[in-house]
Amino acid sequence: MAEPTASAYPAALDTTATLGADFVNAKTFILNADINASVTSVVTTATISGFSANNWILIDSEIMWVDSISTATFTVVRGRGGTTAATHSANAIIYTPPVAQWANLIRDAIIKIETELGTDPAGSVTDVDTRLDVALNEDGTLKTVAVGKGGTGATSLTDGGVLLGSGTGAVTAMSVLSDGEMIVGDGTTDPVAESGATLRTSIGVGSISTQASDAVNIDGGAIDGVTIGTNSAVTDLRVDNLKADGNTISVTNSNGDLTLTPNGTGSIIVNGPLQVDGTTTTVNSTTLTVDDPLITIGGDSAPGSDDNKDRGIAFRWHNGSAAKIGFLGYDDSASKLTFIPDASLSSEVVSGTVGNVIFGNIEGTITTVAQNSITSASSLATVGTVGTGVWQGTRVAATYGGTNIDTSGSTGVPRIDSGTWSVGDASLTADVSGTLPVANGGTNATSLADKAVLITQDSGTDTVAAAAMTSSGQILMGGSSGPAVGTITAGSGMTVTNGDGAITLAADTCGACATAGFSVAMAIAL
């Protein structure tokens, strides 16, 4: 290759000014209106900033050269870079092509090379490749670049091989590593690839025989100061603050927590019975599900004596103004199931005022002496003797022994007509049946003779008799056998005339009687 002459180089070094302004990469603008294939003014929707003239722009597939910029207008040369001028629609995106990056790199490389060579390399160097520290072949290709010149000194490298340096000598490539091989150095010679027993010896891990993927037999070495020998179990295994010792997993830092965290939505699964010992067990999950239909509280074995502690569930709630603790469970002192909405807890003993409870059907015996308020009992199958109290419920139907009427404002006697109760005046014909005894104000007679007078008998409670007085002149006369009905019989010198409701007595006349006075002897014959 002939030595270049000074005329092949510029008289002055190029700069960014002589090789073009900085090319902007990946800047975008918006086309304001449709343009045809001949216009050279490209108007954008906003003022152009962050971009200078002497740059490329791209609209759709057409490349344009920007000669100048004024506010929101590019003055361009159309159809550059092998593209063809075309029409473009409003709102098309105006790009600065990625080729700008390569243009910047080439520009900077030219400036650096020219700076290195100077303006007259022929007067200061014998050959261009001496200044570049690169030898050229006759066909113009580069010769191998030595390590000292930033190359590898090699003409070919093994695909996938690890490179090894050798001072200023050529870089060499190791063979591709086989499965299980590692690169091991000894601090003096070149690193080598090792595996198997040779590798274990080099890195000091003792003897690890090849095992299945789920078992590894470690016959030597030490873990945390514990010597591991053939068929000898490790007494404990420690990782960070975690200690596995026999059947126990614990933490070694003071008051340290032991946290089991599944991955993602996974679960912590315990196969077999679970026993939790300690003074406090806190469950912060929002949903708790227990398959066992019976939950035992108060201990895992039968108590030997009464500890005087209550059993049940204490729950937190808020009544709108203050936080409360409620209790539902067995009150040991009362020996009853108890609900207390605002409870005080002290040493597992609950106190407070019992609350209200809503049930559906309740079956059992009410033993409390006083029930202050039972607002509804739709169906009482059996009610014992009610000693005292005031009935204030609905009317008791006749079917259940009541009257089903309100008599608080009634006057009269009650009567029943076809099962319906009412209150009013009694009807001696409709409301009375049978014979009313004398002792109860009656006559004890079922009928009495017409036009008769009533006569009591020997006993004060005997049936009242009726003596008919249907003939003219009859009168009621007393006697040792009781009253009797009879007529007056005329005697000597007397005439008796019986009429309907009247008796006429007339004395006979005589001369002697009229003058000397007279006496009338009357005899009433019965």
Could you write a compact summary of the structure shown?
The chain is mainly beta and 526 residues long.
Explain what you see:
By secondary structure, the protein is mainly β. It has helices at 99-117, 128-132, 196-203, 511-516, and strands at residues 28-30, 41-43, 55-59, 62-70, 73-80, 93-95, 163-166, 169-173, 182-184, 192-194, 222-223, 226-227, 237-239, 242-245, 248-251, 311-318, 323-331, 336-340, 344-346, 349-351, 413-417, 420-424, 452-455, 465-468, 475-477, 484-486, 494-499, 502-507. Among the domains are: 28-97, Elongation Factor Tu (Ef-tu), domain 3 (Beta Barrel), CATH 2.40.30; 311-351, no CATH class; 469-526, no CATH class. It has 4 helices and 28 strands. It has a 6-stranded antiparallel beta sheet, with no helix packed on it. A 3-stranded antiparallel beta sheet has the order 13-14-15, with no helix packed on it. The longest helix has 19 residues, at 99-117. The N and C termini lie far apart (198 Å).
- Secondary-structure class: mainly beta
CATH architecture of the domain at 28-97: Beta Barrel
Number of strands: 28
Instruction: Round the mean pLDDT to the nearest integer and report it.
Output: 77
Question: How helix-rich are the residues, as a percent range?
Answer: under 10%
Largest sheet: 6 strands, antiparallel
What is the terminal-to-terminal distance?
198 Å
What portion of residues belong to β-strands? Answer: 15-25%
In order across it, which strands form the biggest sheet?
1-6-3-4-5-2
Overall geometry comes to: elongated
| Rg over C-alpha atoms, rounded to the nearest angstrom | 68 Å
Count of helical regions: 4
CATH fold category name of the domain at 28-97: Elongation Factor Tu (Ef-tu), domain 3
Low-confidence spans: 1-8, 121-134, 511-526
The CATH class assignment of the domain at 28-97 is Mainly Beta
Quaternary organisation: single chain
